[in-house]
Amino acid sequence: MKIISLVLLLATTTVVQAGPLVYAEASKEYVEHVPRDFTGPKHLRPVIEKRQDPSTKTGQPYDPKTKKGSTFSGGTNAQLDLQNPANLGAESTDNGIVTNLKWSFSDSKTRLLNGGWTREQVVTDLPASKDIAGAQQHLKKGASRELHWHKVAEWGFVYAGSVLVSAVDENGKSQVARVNEGDIWYFPKGSAHTINGLDDENEYLLVFDEGDFDAKGTTFNVDDWIAHTPKDILAKNFGVNASVFDNTPKVNPYILPTEVSEGKVDNPNGNLEGNSSYVYYASKENVPEVPGGGGTIQIVDSRNFPISKTLAAAIVTVKPKGHRELHWHPNAEEWLYFHKGKARATVFEGNALARTFDFSAGDTAVFPDNSGHYVENLSDSEDLVWLELYKSDRVADISLTQWLAVTPPDIVAATLNVSRSVVDGLKKEKQLILKGT
């Protein structure tokens, strides 16, 4: 694997001004290496170096170049070591004690239910993720996530099959909608809802704007409530005989086998549509390649999905060997779910603290509020796809290269101890995803 030196990185990592919804390409010109007219001092000219990754193939914490470390003598999980070379010192730039920022759904307890399964990642799994919790959920055809609501907002993304979502707001307005692969829903805090599986097998990602999602009083299931309400009160409330509720489940099933819903509701109170719609059909959008030529970024936040006021999202695809440029987010911590491929990211927390992590499909991560980072696709042939979410009304980022490019160049040159010509060559427009080299 090759990496560009600091000088080369600064000369190439340029970025484009973000549009309000999907990042639009401002210029088709980008630099893969260094401007041809670069005339800086010889010692500042670009140097392609091979990144030292001594542990990748062996799974051993030993660097033959520096002679640091040694081999394992026992008491280790060799498979995990091979999957996480960054934990074995693959990046010499790592420094200090940085808390764990990664959790795999494969490490979560999976609940097997009649009609599907669910597994989650909450703050007790990943303590650094205070703003957001996530879950994977699977429904068989006709199975339903029982009627419920949360005291937090719920965001969903279908990545296999199709589901029918049904929800009601405080005014009695409702929405029943088919959500296909690649589409998104958002249920505001307190909105009553359910999910019904339409295809043979259906699976989706759930995201909540609270890290401690398992805390008492977060989720309320309707059958659980009815089972714990006096029957005479139920009879008066619904205007029926109390015996109607004799067979209500005493223990909530969470997911239960039902039938594929017809999805028909005649609601005189009106429908949730337009800016009030709980569903965003992201699968129908044509997402353009972002500046840098290394992939795509599809933004879904309150600017194009108005109801989604507390969770903003981006669906990111990086081509083989490409990387999401060095940047940070000024408005919130970043929660990530890696859907396809293999990735590596280094997180910079300030005060000389930095740690690198390796990611595979099914992993989640959190990058602390305002921490600097990049994400690199390690594959030579496979696209890297992840979803990133923020407890915010919008997606926002600041590019390292763009910042340096629009700062007085003499100050930047003095700070980095580089030639003024290097700084002058930095692009003033974002290059969000850089092509691989």
Can you walk me through this structure?
It is a single chain. This protein is mainly beta. It is 11% helix and 34% strand. Strands 6-7-8-15-10-13-18 form a 7-stranded antiparallel sheet, with no helix packed on it. A hairpin with a 4-residue loop joins strand 3 (62-63) and strand 4 (68-69). The protein starts with a strand and ends with a strand.
Short synopsis of the structure:
By secondary structure, this protein is mainly beta. It has 7 helices and 29 strands.
Secondary-structure-based class equals: mainly beta
Can you count the beta strands?
Answer: 29
- Give Rg in angstroms: 25 Å
Going across the major beta sheet, what is the strand order? Answer: 6-7-8-15-10-13-18
Contiguous low-pLDDT stretches (5 residues minimum) are: 1-46
Main sheet makeup: 7 strands, antiparallel
From the N-terminal CA to the C-terminal CA, the straight-line distance is: 9 Å
Output mean pLDDT: 90
Strand content: 25-35%
Helix content: 10-25%
Shape: globular
So how many helices?
7
